[in-house]
Description:
This protein has a single domain (about 1-270), classed as TIM Barrel (Alpha-Beta Barrel), CATH 3.20.20.10. It has helices spanning about 1-25, 35-60, 75-85, 95-105, 125, 140-150, 175-180, 205-225, 250-255, 265-270, and strands at about 90, 110-115, 130-135, 155-160, 190-200, 245-250, 260-265. The termini are far apart. The protein is of the alpha/beta class and about 280 residues long.
Amino acid sequence: MADIKKSQEREELFRTIYKIATDLVHAGHVAEWDFKSYVLGTMFYRYISENFTAYINAGEHEAGNADFDYAKMSDADAVRQAIAAGVDCCGENRVQELTKKAAEDAYAGVPVHFIGHLQTNKVKQIVPFVHLIHSVDSFRLLECINREAEKIGRKVRVLLEVHVAKEETKSGFTPEELLSLDLPLSSLNHVEICGLMGMATNTDDEQEIRRCFQAIRQLADTCLSRYHADTTSTGYTEDTERIISMGMSDDYLLAIQEGSTMVRIGSSIFGERHY
């Protein structure tokens, strides 16, 4: 009976997501090319957040490893298992964890994103290999990344973090600061601004969470259209990568509904971290 109810709930979720995606296309908020990403991406993240640990454990148990427990693995081994199961991009929110796993070759060649608060004195540790930095929260940090990337001849992809949540403890450019930046930043030849990242207020109030995500999406449409001269008013072309990184394990469904193109799912897959 429980399995039937769960199946019915999942089918209802999929119908809801499909309707939302259809409405977004018809309203001109997302290109038809992104339609499948909204629907299939949400289904995928919902599936792995519910089933990933059980899936990994079942495979090991069937292979004869009866004592295997994915939740008790080392961080590096857990990442390797996730990649073996099909995960094709990893993210870290602490420099020391990223560099430690990289030294242990845990990422096995898949792109690695840095999503946590980044101090300028740690930039040089991740610039050589990080695929995307989500959390550029000041012009000073942007300049630092550019300098370190120039030293090794790289161009580092970054997202500008915007602060729209009610908590003052969260980092990022204010909307006013973001709108006042002179984009494109022609003096910074070793960074590529690919989009925005932001977090919603930590609350159970769905309307407040939506307000935050809507504000981030609107800022992305305004600011990134200035940065990419060939974009349309909706901010999307086939040739330009534009990323709106918003939504985590607790609120990614709302984020996708409000226009997120990249969600940061961690605890739903790997469990809560205890530092």
